[in-house]
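Entry 14. Structure prediction run on the chain below.
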Amino acid sequence: MSKELIRLRDLCMAYDDELVLDHLNLYINDKEFLTLLGPSGCGKTTTLRIIGGFTTPGSGDVLFDGVRINDVPPYKRQINTVFQKYALFPHLNVFENVAFGLRMQRREDPADPKRKVKLPEEEIQSRVLEMLEAVSLKGFENRRTDALSGGQQQRVAIARALVNRPKVLLLDEPLGALDLKLRKDMQIELKRIQQQVGITFIYVTHDQEEALTMSDTIVVMDKGSIQQIGTPEDIYNEPKNAFVADFIGESNIIDGVMVRDKLVQMYGRQFPCLDGGFTENEPVDVVIRPEDIDIVPVEQGQLTGVVTNVTFKGMQYDIIVDFRGFKWLIQTTDHSPVGARIGIKIDPDGIHVMKKSRYSGLYGDYSSFSDEYDELDAAEPEEGGDET
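Output returned:
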């Protein structure tokens, strides 16, 4: 069983009378890769800064190994931070960048406990080389940091933070400055490093792919509150509300009625599903992921609609289909031309039913998505009627 390392208890924080954290409660386990995920302004970076000691909460407690650390300064916490800007020293080589913190440290002299001495050079050498090997930079000791790629510079920053042997590493959107391919490579590299060094990583991002790729646990936040906590699989497959469903991946979110357990109604048609625990005829939000929809001949479809836009994405087509004025996104390898009337089928495990929330009705309609492509294509898509 995992050991709890950090607990945030009833944290509140406001800037200029604007509530940034609203009674936030969260615990983080030892050796866990936990990601705080959400849009700008949701409170994720403030939460990270509170854990690191750079910001003091307005109220609430931060516990580390069961001890309250609200008033403990950052340099006395067993926590280090890697920011988006790596702040490497350009006048120092890779070795000296990583060794910098160790050279600042002092410990008791075994011969005289009242006297503080520097770390032995042999220990510094050993620990720096150990960290450079952990981040796949062995042999780069004498390289100038300005001669490194963005990904290599990031790994130097990580090694510099880890060489002090913290129990927790905080990472505030560290991949934001990298190009797409390097960012994808570094997602895998960061997870490997975390598993190798065996400490807790707390990662902040607005990028859902980063969160899904690296995390043991994802915390989805909005407006200072936690919307859902779970594994990447749970968050993606079982979103708690329309905000989570929309923020994690693409989602068609439709008004429905739960006729009874395992049977939901949309557009006047009934669809078998796997969900239960709702009252009979309870209004609900229905989430259908674009990849879970099969295009079939009209006569075989559970619903039929008209294709209003098609975009080729390499491995698939993004197809916008109009169902009674509400536009769905379908992701498929089968091409359907604009103006075509198509049928769709959805298996029961492709339908997820959620309780109504304050986010209901705000997400899931791809009308604006289609309009963006209209502008790019400089052509108005053919609109047509639809039927069920």
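The longest strand covers residues 4-15.
Filed with the rest of this week's runs.
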